[in-house]
């Protein structure tokens, strides 16, 4: 069976100040063309269909159009909700939509109930694991630890239990929305850290033929059977080096996996440039970035006058301006920035405690801080569901 694996459409999201709806519509056109021209037999969309729980009307209209066109091709589609989606809203009408061959999987309780699609070699069982917010689903899965690994492992136990009841030779595909160990994040994914840990091991997906992952925006191969498609469009300058694509997966009769990348149309290249303003305006090597979306980091010791207007004279699509002035190593501002770089919210809080009282928190206090951060995350998740 030939599958097309995509995820993280984030319909309704802008790129800095640029409305991306036209680019998202062009991606949908490209996806439909790929399905027709490459003989795709099933499409899988691994979450974050929308960018937020209550998407704008034009994003809903684009999604509705995509569903009608996918159904019109007669190619089955399996979708799950991601951490940006409202699972309840995305899942409205799932039963009726399923009759048209569009299978929405947004209910964690249904993780062990597959969509079964046949091909010339037998059945392929598609298991949809929507984003599992640990604080909200741990009771459903009967786990005592409120971490991602615990709830995802419990969901996969249901998958393997159901698969064991299927006829011999039944192949299996899991759709999941999670941060798997070994994946490289970008700045445009919403943090899903719980208990100080966000990542789950790839081994949690053992026993299935292919795991189609969503959440991370870079296309990545964790193992030959565990892959991220990445987002089809860039949503932060941290994705400047990404190759935006989908995975074309051929699932053999014996469960073997062969993968090929299908590039996605990107409206404009991204570029990150850095240096003093006068140097950026004069450097001939930067000519290749003059029509790109640009993030410029200025290192001038003193902020120059009208930097954005002057940059736009050469780089008319400059969208982001960052100031990182060159400083002496002993400069307090420079050392503070270095101390914060790459540190989590919890680590910054612990550093603050140590700075105020000249002694860091003990184990009990660290646990209190972590519980506070987890409680805020859980409260945000509950409010997101209630919207």
From TrEMBL:
Nuclease keyword on record: yes
Domain Nuclease SbcCD subunit D C-terminal: start-end pairs: 267-355
Any GO molecular function: exonuclease activity
Segments forming domain Calcineurin-like phosphoesterase: 1-217
Gene3D superfamilies linked: 3.60.21.10
Pfam assignment, any one: Metallophos
InterPro entries: Calcineurin-like_PHP (IPR004843), DNA_Repair-Maintenance_Comp (IPR050535), Metallo-depent_PP-like (IPR029052), Mre11_N (IPR041796), SbcD (IPR004593), SbcD_C (IPR026843)
Keyword set, alphabetical order: DNA recombination, DNA replication, Endonuclease, Exonuclease, Hydrolase, Nuclease
Stated family: Belongs to the SbcD family.
Subunit structure: Heterodimer of SbcC and SbcD.
Function comment: SbcCD cleaves DNA hairpin structures. These structures can inhibit DNA replication and are intermediates in certain DNA recombination reactions. The complex acts as a 3'->5' double strand exonuclease that can open hairpins. It also has a 5' single-strand endonuclease activity.
Protein name per UniProt: Nuclease SbcCD subunit D
Source species: Streptomyces glomeratus
Protein's gene: sbcD
């Amino acid at each position: 069976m030939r599958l097309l694996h995509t995820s993280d459409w984030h319909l309704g999201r802008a790129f800095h100040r640029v409305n991306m709806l036209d680019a998202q519509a062009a991606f949908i056109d490209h996806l439909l063309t790929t399905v027709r021209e490459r003989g795709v037999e099933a499409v899988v969309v691994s979450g974050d269909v929308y960018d937020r729980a209550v998407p704008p009307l034009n994003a809903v209209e684009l999604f509705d159009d995509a569903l009608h066109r996918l159904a019109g091709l007669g190619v089955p589609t399996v979708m799950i909700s991601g951490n940006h989606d409202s699972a309840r809203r995305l899942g409205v009408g799932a039963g009726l939509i399923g009759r048209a061959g569009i299978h929405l999987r947004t209910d964690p309780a249904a993780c062990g109930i597959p969509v079964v699609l046949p091909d010339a070699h037998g059945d392929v069982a598609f298991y949809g694991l929507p984003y599992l917010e640990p604080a909200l689903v741990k009771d459903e899965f009967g786990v005592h630890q409120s971490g991602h690994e615990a709830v995802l492992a419990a969901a996969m136990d249901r998958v393997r239990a159901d698969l064991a009841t299927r006829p011999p030779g039944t192949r299996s595909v899991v759709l999941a929305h999670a941060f798997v160990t070994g994946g490289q994040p970008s700045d445009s994914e919403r943090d899903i850290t719980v208990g100080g840990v966000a990542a789950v091991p790839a081994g949690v997906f053992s026993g299935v033929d292919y795991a189609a992952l969503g959440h991370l925006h870079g296309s990545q191969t964790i193992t030959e059977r565990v892959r991220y498609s990445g987002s089809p469009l860039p949503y932060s300058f941290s994705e400047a080096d990404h190759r935006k694509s989908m995975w074309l997966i051929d699932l053999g009769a014996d469960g073997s996996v062969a993968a090929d990348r299908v590039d996605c149309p990107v409206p404009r290249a991204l570029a990150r440039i850095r240096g003093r303003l006068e140097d950026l305006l004069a450097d001939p090597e930067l000519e290749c970035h003059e029509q790109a979306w640009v993030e410029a980091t200025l290192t001038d010791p003193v902020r120059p006058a009208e930097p954005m207007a002057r940059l736009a004279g050469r780089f008319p699509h400059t969208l982001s301006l960052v100031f990182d002035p060159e400083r002496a190593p002993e400069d307090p501002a420079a050392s503070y920035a270095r101390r914060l770089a790459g540190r989590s919210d919890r680590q910054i809080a612990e550093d603050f405690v140590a700075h105020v009282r000249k002694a860091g928190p003990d184990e009990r206090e660290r646990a209190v801080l972590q519980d506070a951060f987890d409680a805020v995350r859980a409260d945000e998740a509950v409010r997101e569901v209630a919207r």
